[in-house]
Amino acid sequence: MKNKTILFWIIAIVITLSSAIFQRMTGPTKPYRGQVELGESSISYRLIRTYDQHEDAPVSIEAKDSEIGGYFMYKRYPSHDQWAQAPLEREGDQLVAYIPQQPPAGKVMYQIFLEKAGSTVTLSEEPVIIRFRDSVPGWALLPHIIFMFIAMLFSTRAGLAAIFREKTSTLTILTFTTFVLGGLIFGPIVQKFAFGDYWTGWPMGTDLTDNKTAFAFIFWLIALVKVFRNPQHRGWVLAASIVLLLVYLIPHSLLGSEIDWTQEGIE
User: Fold this and answer.
1) Domain 32-132, second-level architecture
2) Helix (H, G, I), strand (E, B) or coil at 66
3) Widest Cα–Cα separation across the chain
4) Partners of 119 in the beta sheet?
5) How is the chain split into domains, by residue range?
6) Helix and strand tally (H, E) in the chain?
7) Who contacts 130 (Cβ-Cβ below 8 Å, separation ≥6)?
8) Could you give the C-alpha distances from 104 to 150, 171, 172, 198, 262, in angstroms and in order?
9) Where are the alpha helices (DSSP H) in 95-234?
10) pLDDT tens digits in sequence order for the chain, 267 residues long
11) Which of 29, 59, 63, 173 has its CB surrounded by the most CB atoms within 10 Å?
12) Among 3, 6, 12, 10, which residue's Cα sits nearest to residue 160?
């Protein structure tokens, strides 16, 4: 019995860590990376897609060959702006594009071009979109992250308990408590610091992170009510654990807060 319990916790930990890695690797804030050839140089690059300082966002490309130059094109997103163009600035071995600062939740799409001796290469086939945000203090961000992944761990373990006909009440309470702390208390606090609003999901907006949090919360609330009535209840606990796993597989910040520059009166 003890070995089975240890095995279930190991499985829950592996699933939780895998979901965390998946979110990190697939989210829209993950830097766009690649490599291009220009002349005799092979140039690796990393184009950022999020920035949290009150200044223009520097995008640096290492190009030791001093004959390599270039420019970048940019415009706000979404907007009816015309494309603007600016030269890359050489700073030692780096060519730097300074993406104009935007207010929190403001986005800019940009594309970088490198040139040498009449040849030009583009660093991305499609423009890269960067979102600006305010800094989030560690006292808000760290508990949000910790509680969310502890909730995922308890949720997965609760799902295994439901499948193998173990008692689910304690794990359900732990999942619900940590999920509320991470998603509905510290989550809105992080959102407020980063983008100026506590909640931008339904009915106020279309923020997918907020909406998927609310959706998972409803399932775990129902599961909590069911296990209070019957500590051996399994159906809704299993359903809620599956929903939360699917929610975690949706890339974080997808369809997140953004300023729609196409709307009248927004400048």
Assistant:
1) Sandwich (2.60)
2) coil
3) 76
4) 116
5) 2-27+136-249, 32-132
6) 6, 11
7) 48, 49, 50, 51, 57, 99, 107, 108, 109, 110
8) 29, 38, 36, 13, 17
9) 138-163, 169-179, 186-195, 208-229
10) 577 889 999 999 999 999 888 877 777 788 999 999 998 889 999 999 999 988 999 999 999 999 999 999 999 999 999 999 999 999 999 999 999 999 999 999 999 999 998 899 999 989 999 999 999 999 999 999 999 999 999 999 999 999 998 889 999 999 999 999 999 999 999 999 998 888 877 777 677 788 889 999 999 999 999 998 988 889 999 999 999 998 888 776 666 678 889 985 555
11) 59
12) 12
Looking at the DSSP assignment, which residues form a beta bridge with residue 97? Answer: 59
Q: Give the Cα-Cα-Cα angle 107, 192, 181 (nearest 5 degrees).
A: 125
Six-digit token string for 12: 């829950």
Distance in angstroms (rounded) separating the CA atoms of residues 124 and 122: 6
CA dist 10 → 25, 73, 163, 239, 245 (Å): 22, 49, 16, 21, 16
Angstrom distance (rounded) from CA 87 to CA 69: 8
C-alpha to C-alpha distance for 144 and 252, rounded to whole angstroms: 13
How far is CA 115 from its chain centroid? 33
Residues in the chain: 267
Task: List, in order, residues 6 or more apart from 25 with CB less than 8 Å away.
Answer: none
Two structure tokens written together for 89: 């600035």
Residues 194, 241: contact at Cβ < 8 Å?
Answer: no
Which residues neighbour 214 within 8 Å (Cβ) at sequence distance 6 or greater?
201, 202
Asked whether the bond before 203 is cis by omega within 30 degrees of 0, the reply is: yes
- The residues, ordered by sequence, that sit 6+ positions from 222 with a Cβ below 8 Å of its Cβ are 236, 240
